Amino acid sequence: KFVANNKQRKVQVLPRPRAAFRRRYWCESRIGYFEFRIRANMSGTVNYEEVKAAVSDPTVLIIDVRGPEEVQSTGKIGNSINIPVADVAEALKDGESFREKYGRAIPSHEDAIIFHCLKGGRAQKASDAALALGFKNSKYYPGSYSEWSSKN
């Protein structure tokens, strides 16, 4: 319905302009009802003091899951070994290649393993992967290298 004609401009009043605009231009998706369970983080965590103690403990394996370039450019935590996060699951499956690649025996399923990255996100994923493979004492350092470098 035209309301006015203002110098060759037609002005129109829409009964439900928002709805008309939405139908033409907005893309909406509707998600039906679904059920999900919230579970606590599978991995345990360690703090700065625990990592500091682990550096001098030969029974604890500290794994840096950042890329090699990232480790070279920023540094590393003590005696940690570098296994990029994408390679962690595969590396922890094969004991022979683990020793060849990383210069130490693969940890047993009861040994303590601490994962770290730059800020903790990748470390948590790696720790969850290790837990899924049966490494019961897999933990990650949420502060990771960011916190470590600020305190050392």
UniProtKB/TrEMBL annotation:
Source domain of life: Eukaryota
InterPro entries registered for this protein in UniProt: Rhodanese-like_dom (IPR001763), Rhodanese-like_dom_sf (IPR036873)
Gene3D superfamilies from the UniProt entry: Rhodanese-like domain
Sequence ranges assigned to domain Rhodanese in this UniProt record: 56-150
Protein's UniProt name: Rhodanese domain-containing protein
Species per Swiss-Prot/TrEMBL record: Phyllotreta striolata
Upper taxonomic lineage: Eukaryota, Metazoa, Ecdysozoa, Arthropoda, Hexapoda
